[in-house]
Amino acid sequence: MRRSANTRGFTLIEMLVVLFIIVLITSIVITGQSNYNKTLLLTDTTYGVALSAREAQTFGLASRKYGSVQNPGYGLHFSSASPSSYTLFADINPTLAAPSNCPLGAVGTPERKPGNCRFDAADGVVSTYTFSRGFTVTKFCGKSGLTRYCSTDPAPLTTLDLVFTRPNTSTTISGLVNGSLLTSFSCAEITISDPTKQANRVIRLSSIGEISTGQSCP
C-alpha cells in the first residue's frame, strides 16, 4: 500500500508544546491539591481546639472529680510563650488571686470551688496538647467592655484562661495583660494559623458558654 505524501508525524516543536501543557496542568493540580490539604488540616486543627474547650466545659459542668479533689472547675490555658501548645487543666489550686468574674461559691457550702478560675502551676494537668505540622496559636485576644486586649499588642495579653465550673453555664475568661495585670473578659478569640501564617481560623468563646468557629468577638 502506498503512503500519502502528505502523511507526517509530530514535529519536535509540537511535542514540546504538548509536554509543556501537560506539565503546566499537572503543576496546577498538584498545587491545588496541596492547598486543599492545608486548608483541611487547618480546619481540623481548629475544630480540635474547639473540641478541647467543649471537653473542659463538659468536665466542669459535670463536676468531675480530679484525684481526691471534689467539685473542681476545668479549663483551657494558653500562653504566648508556648504558641504551639495549650493545656486542659483541673482548677484545684487557689494560690493566685481569682479574677473578678470567678464564681467561687460561699465558704462552707457545696458550691464552694477548690480553685480560683485560672491556671496555677500547681493545678491538675489533664492534657497538654501540642500542635503538629507547624500549626500555631498566632494570636489570642480578650474583650473587656469596648476594649480588646491581644497577645500581639505592644502591652500584650500574655496568658488566656477559660474556665468552666458547676453549676454555672457561663465561662470565666481572664488573662494577664503585660504579664502582670489580671483582667476579666466577656469574650475571647483564639487564632490558629498554618505554617506559612497566611491562612488562619478563629475560635470564639463567650462568657455565656458559647463556643464557635469562624467568628470574632462582637
Task: Write the SSE topology.
Layout: H1 12-61, E1 73-79, E2 85-91, E3 124-130, E4 136-144, E5 147-150, E6 159-164, E7 171-177, E8 181-185, E9 187-193, E10 200-206, E11 211-213
Antiparallel strand pairs: 1-2, 1-6, 2-3, 4-5, 4-9, 6-7, 7-8, 9-10, 10-11
Protein architecture, described:
The chain has 218 residues and is α+β, with helices and mostly antiparallel strands. It has one domain (12-213). The chain is built from 1 helix and 11 strands. The chain has one helix spanning 12-61; strands spanning 73-79, 85-91, 124-130, 136-144, 147-150, 159-164, 171-177, 181-185, 187-193, 200-206, 211-213. The protein has a 6-stranded antiparallel β-sheet with strand order 3-2-1-6-7-8, with helices on one face. A hairpin with a 4-residue loop joins strand 10 (200-206) and strand 11. The longest helix is centred in the N-terminal third of the chain and has 50 residues, at 12-61.
Keywords:
alpha+beta; 6-stranded antiparallel sheet; 218 residues; elongated; 11 strands
- The structure class reads alpha+beta
Number of E-state strands: 11
Number of helices: 1
Distance between the termini: 82 Å
Could you give the order of the helices and strands? Answer: HEEEEEEEEEEE
